[in-house]
Amino acid sequence: LLFLDFKLSVLNNLKNINLLRTFECSARHQSYSKAADELFISQAAVSQQMRLLEADLGRQLFLRKGRLMRLTRHGQTLFQATQQALAILENSVNELVNEELAGDLIITSTQAFTSLWLMPRLSLFTSRYPEINIQINSSPQFEDLQQRHIDLAIRFSAKELDDALGKYKYEYFGEEAVWPVCSVQLADKLSLNSPTELLKTWLVTLEEPGVFSWPKWFDSNGTNGYQQHQKWTYVQSTDMAIHAVLNGHGCTLAAEYLCGHYITSGQLKVPVSIPHPQSLKRYFVYEPSSSKIRRIKLFMNWLKQQMNAGP
After folding, report:
1. Which residues contact 201 (CB under 8 A, 6 or more apart)?
2. Are 62 and 71 in contact (CB under 8 A)?
3. What residues pair up with 223 in beta bridges, in sequence order?
4. Quick check: 107 and 149 in contact, CB under 8 A?
5. pLDDT single digits (tens) 268-283
6. On the chain, which terminus has fewer CB atoms closer than 10 Å, C or N?
């Protein structure tokens, strides 16, 4: 009965419910200074708040015993009630957060990025957020997200993308150099140490390389004779090109994020340390007003952390 009467007194008389959080922390530590450290406020602020709380309730809650702040009988009663109330609030908030997170997230990117970078790391995300169901689609071109029911696109471009006139947000999150790469064995066998020496082997390229072409790379470093080169292999995606050179078939041009782990493991190497004159800029594309924006932001933050961590 005393416990119930005291809870009603708290509800009726307390003017600032935030004081309860400070009280719970102070009572748990039996120390104003430790509560101040946990709450990132001054010890004087904690002391003042506890005086206000005692004044609001008309009860003494603490007694100083040496360095400790001991709870009075009324303090013990309030401490029990406050811990129960905060636990209920925390559980309710967690349920709301998890309910908002739970659901599907449809993501699209290039075939090379999804197969070489994203899929090998996807379990790291799903183990951390099992309530989010990820669907991955690969596509070489930019798409209408609404029409295709896509929540987030991860896209790469040599130019800066401007979202000022569109309905989607283009969020830049870094860029990568594009390098010539080949197997370590091939580089050693053919002594591939200069741009001209790359013409001794097959050059693997996309059917539609855009600005990231071998001719632009050769032109940028002043190499002649590539126009007469006969050993060309054309593929549809960069992951196909990387798999070809992993197995000793010539050289290709690839962004560092796609082949960095192969270089680190000693399977591939950059035979000539001259990057392509164009770098590859990375963008997230999404609808800012999406009902799934919290899931989208969560995935974006995770992906940026993983990319910043390196190969």
Report:
1. 182, 186, 190, 192, 231, 250, 251
2. yes
3. none
4. no
5. 999 999 999 999 999 9
6. N
